[in-house]
């Protein structure tokens, strides 16, 4: 599997997970449940998918610039462009659905139940017991939503850290491959250099032998002539 297909498979898995999380968020919204955690997870997933798609687009640009280098014809490149375009459409659809029904919970909204000693705050002084219970329930719900949002953001950071680690592993493997190729080529160069030196020495010895033979032949000719 080449790098494009591997990255395409990863982006597809991210897209599928986004659809699963989106369906779960819709279910929670229908039941009136807090979705802050899923909202944060969806935001992280959308960013991850956008980065993956950008990487795939850069690969296609490289294919178009040097198709012979990657051994791809126009049909292959067009097919890959169509696959990336479909991912972009899916990203836009999921992003649009994510924006629908999103509830943003802000810190500080609701009644403040903090008490100093036996004193009561102005927020709760004139409320009935029923209103107090309702306000307290709303505050707890807001706190729960904030906690879920923090957890969702933390999960996004974990995913981002894992992706960075995976990228570092890939680059480390590429560097190892380059290092091995350099060592292999250096060995070939050393072997070629040694053979060349040996050939030069042999050529020099052969030249000297030829000169001696020629000189002996000339000496014989001179002696015969005398």
Automatic annotation (TrEMBL):
<keyword id="KW-0813">Transport</keyword>
<feature type="transmembrane region" description="Helical">
    <location>
        <begin position="206"/>
        <end position="225"/>
    </location>
</feature>
<keyword id="KW-0812">Transmembrane</keyword>
<keyword id="KW-0472">Membrane</keyword>
<feature type="domain" description="T-SNARE coiled-coil homology">
    <location>
        <begin position="137"/>
        <end position="199"/>
    </location>
</feature>
<dbReference type="InterPro" id="IPR010989">
    <property type="entry name" value="SNARE"/>
</dbReference>
<dbReference type="GO" id="GO:0015031">
    <property type="term" value="P:protein transport"/>
</dbReference>
<dbReference type="InterPro" id="IPR000727">
    <property type="entry name" value="T_SNARE_dom"/>
</dbReference>
<protein>
    <recommendedName>
        <fullName>t-SNARE coiled-coil homology domain-containing protein</fullName>
    </recommendedName>
</protein>
<feature type="coiled-coil region">
    <location>
        <begin position="46"/>
        <end position="97"/>
    </location>
</feature>
<keyword id="KW-0653">Protein transport</keyword>
<keyword id="KW-0175">Coiled coil</keyword>
<dbReference type="GO" id="GO:0048193">
    <property type="term" value="P:Golgi vesicle transport"/>
</dbReference>
<dbReference type="GO" id="GO:0000139">
    <property type="term" value="C:Golgi membrane"/>
</dbReference>
<dbReference type="Pfam" id="PF09177">
    <property type="entry name" value="STX6_10_61_N"/>
</dbReference>
<keyword id="KW-0333">Golgi apparatus</keyword>
<keyword id="KW-1133">Transmembrane helix</keyword>
<dbReference type="InterPro" id="IPR015260">
    <property type="entry name" value="Syntaxin-6/10/61_N"/>
</dbReference>
């Amino acid at each position: 599997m080449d790098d494009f297909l591997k990255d395409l498979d990863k982006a597809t898995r991210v897209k599928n997970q986004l659809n699963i999380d989106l369906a779960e968020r819709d279910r929670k919204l229908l039941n009136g449940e807090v979705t802050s955690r899923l909202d944060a997870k969806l935001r992280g997933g959308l960013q991850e998918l956008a980065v993956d798609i950008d990487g795939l687009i850069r690969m296609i640009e490289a294919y178009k610039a040097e198709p012979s280098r990657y051994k791809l014809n126009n049909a292959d490149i067009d097919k890959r462009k169509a696959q990336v375009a479909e991912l972009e459409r899916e990203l836009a659809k999921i992003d649009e659905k994510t924006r629908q029904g999103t509830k943003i919970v802000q810190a500080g909204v609701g009644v403040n139940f903090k008490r100093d000693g036996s004193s009561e705050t102005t927020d709760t002084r004139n409320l009935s017991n029923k209103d107090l219970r309702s306000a307290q329930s709303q505050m707890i719900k807001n706190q729960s939503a904030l906690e879920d949002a923090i957890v969702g953001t933390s999960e996004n950071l974990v995913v981002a850290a894992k992706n960075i680690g995976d990228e570092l592993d890939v680059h480390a493997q590429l560097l190892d491959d380059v290092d091995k190729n350099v060592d292999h080529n250096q060995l070939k160069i050393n072997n070629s250099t040694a053979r060349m030196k040996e050939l030069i020495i042999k050529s020099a010895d052969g030249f000297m032998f030829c000169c001696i033979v020629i000189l002996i032949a000339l000496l014989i000719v001179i002696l015969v002539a005398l």
